[in-house]
Amino acid sequence: MLEVRTFVIYTDQKPLTYELHQHPEKCSPLQLRYLNFISQFSTDIRYTKGSDNTVADALSRIELDEVSPTVIDFKEFASAQSTVEELQQVLHSNNSSLTQFQTIFYL
Predict the structure, then answer these.
(1) Is the dihedral of CA 94, 79, 74, 69 positive or negative?
(2) Would strands 44-47 and 8-11 be described as parallel, antiparallel, or unpaired?
(3) How far apart are CA 10 and CA 91, in angstroms?
(4) Whole-angstrom Cα distance, residue 41 to residue 8?
(5) How crowded is residue 45: how many other Cβ atoms within 10 Å of its Cβ?
(6) What superkingdom heads the lineage (predicted)?
(7) Domain boundaries, given as residue ranges, for the chain
(8) What angle do CA 14, 17, 19 make, to 5 degrees?
(9) Who contacts 10 (Cβ-Cβ below 8 Å, separation ≥6)?
(10) Helix H segments across 40-82?
(11) What distances in angstroms separate CA 29 from CA 11, 16, 35, 37, 41, one per listed residue?
């Protein structure tokens, strides 16, 4: 099915547009394998500025809330932990190795 269709690859990497036309001696074996794979689908690779390529631009952007660190209220976190009965039993038992970390849970 792919052989019947004509594919155009749009890229914002200008050197890639010249790769299929350069001498194979200039390429590493890995580059030759990649170029061989790409050329099985299309030899029409066109340069488009990244800002003009809206689809690739949208796919490459990360949402700001995914990158921003989450604000943690440690006092609220500690008070929530102090109400967990099972956690308190573990912290106050003598045979638990977690007793050394008891000060971490209380601010």
Answers:
(1) positive
(2) parallel
(3) 60
(4) 9
(5) 19
(6) Eukaryota
(7) 9-66, 74-103
(8) 115
(9) 46, 47, 48, 53, 56
(10) 54-60, 64-67, 74-82
(11) 22, 16, 10, 12, 19
Q: Which two tokens stand for residue 39?
A: 């050329």
Residues 6+ apart with CB under 8 A from 107: 74, 75, 78
Q: Torsions phi, psi of 57, nearest 5?
A: -65, -45
pLDDT number for residue 48? 82
Tokens of 4: 């019947």
Locate 99 and state its tokens. 């007793």
> 80: exposed, middle or buried (C-beta count within 10 Å: 0-12, 13-18, 19+)?
exposed
Q: How far apart are CA 58 and CA 55, in angstroms?
A: 5
- 62's CB contacts (< 8 A; 6+ apart) are none
Place of tokens 């099985």: 40
Along the chain (107 residues), what's the average pLDDT of each consecutive run of 10 residues? 71 78 83 83 79 74 64 84 83 64 51
